[in-house]
Amino acid sequence: MTDEIEREMDFAAPPDEVWEALTDPEWLGTWLADDVELELWPGGEARFALGDQIRTGWVEEVCAPGGDGGQPGDGRLAFWWAEDGEPASRVELSLRPLDPGTRLRVVETRPLQLLDLVGVPLPGQGGRRYGPALVAA
Amino acid sequence: MPHEPNGHTADQVSDGLAEDRAGAVFGALADPVRRRLFSEIAAHPSTATELANGLPISRQAVAKHLNSLSDAGLLERERAGRDVRYRVTPQPLSEAVSWMAEVGGQWDERLARLAQTLER
Questions:
Q1: Most B CBs within 10 Å: which of A31, A104, A107, as the mutation test of the B interface?
Q2: pLDDT category of residue A72 using cuts at 50, 70 and 90
Q3: CA distance A36 to chain B (A)
Q4: Which residue has the higher pLDDT, B16 or A122?
Q5: A118 neighbors A130 (Cβ within 8 angstroms)
Q6: ipTM score of complex
Q7: A93, A117, A128, B13: least surrounded by Cβ within 10 Å?
Q8: What is d(CA B57, CA A12) in angstroms, rounded to the nearest whole number?
Q9: How confident is the model at residue A92 (pLDDT cuts 50, 70, 90)?
């Protein structure tokens, strides 16, 4: 079972510009959180600060609009994030060109069964914790 | 507003919760002030006066939000002398519904900010 929320929003800006707003740390700092650090490659580290709340995570997929593996103009960014000790969730931001403009689709999912393990100390493993990276493995 | 939430989230709630009930809960928690009041009451049952003391809004405005939360079945009232103390209804909504309401509300706010920054 998976909890999921989904939102869509259309913008007048072209996909390249919306993509920049989704991936440029300075731009992300104006809407996603106060301070965003994002290593833009699969496995890259991510850190989001909002007030005194810190979320950390990692990047799963980066596909710029017009890049390899997608339709021309489509873009996709997927990452995982979690507050310390909280279950992680996966965020997927995908872009689709409109004529004119861009449609942004946001899906945040929390795969419950696997994530029951997150943050739980495991007996016999020296208190090692499962994290999002292991969940996806 | 170009933004339209789709029906996905409501579909996922169908186990155990009537859809109109889920709609009322989502509506009540769609507002950031109500979400904040709800989480404060969850941490510590409070009266409207106590809640208003910690917030930059009037007691009347707080009372109105508390009514919305109560109407959605999220809060219970109990007498506290001449005042009314609110506490969170025991398990009024599944943990999944509250996660979706909270996370959905956060994305609504983020997307509104993104729309602003892209239109500059």
A1: A31
A2: low
A3: 14
A4: B16
A5: yes
A6: 0.79
A7: A128
A8: 36
A9: very high
